[in-house]
Specification:
The protein has about 110 residues and is an alpha+beta fold. It is built from 3 helices and 5 strands, in the order ααββββαβ. α1 runs antiparallel to α2. The radius of gyration is 26 Å and the shape is rod-shaped.
Length: about 110
């Protein structure tokens, strides 16, 4: 961009230099807006995650922080609750709203 700008100015093409400058500044503006909205969307998604979860350990249900969940544990998800992590449905079925992740307009059934 700098080489094209200097070359345009050296040969007297001031309008061309102005157009180059305009397009570069416009691209920088669009990039900033896109990066900002992407970061905000990711931050909103992270903030929507639950901070605690009910797990079944030794036949008892306990509420623990999501950071304490380990692989292979059974998590209890009641209707309307947010799902804190990936997993496999072992019992029951329900519909899950995945719109914030997949963009699907309708909840999908999980069995």
């Amino acid at each position: 961009m700098t080489i094209a700008l200097i070359a345009a100015l050296c040969i007297g093409q001031f309008f061309t230099a102005l157009v180059i400058t305009f397009f570069v500044l416009f691209a920088e503006l669009l990039e900033g807006l896109t990066m900002g909205s992407g970061r905000k969307a990711i931050q909103d998604l992270i903030e929507s995650l639950p901070r605690s979860v009910i797990v079944r350990r030794d036949g008892l249900e306990r509420e623990i922080g999501t950071e304490e969940v380990t692989r292979g544990e059974t998590i209890i998800i009641r209707p309307g609750e947010r799902i804190p992590c990936d997993g496999t449905v072992t019992k029951g079925n329900s519909f899950v709203d995945q719109a914030s992740i997949t963009g699907e307009p309708l909840p999908s059934e999980k069995v």
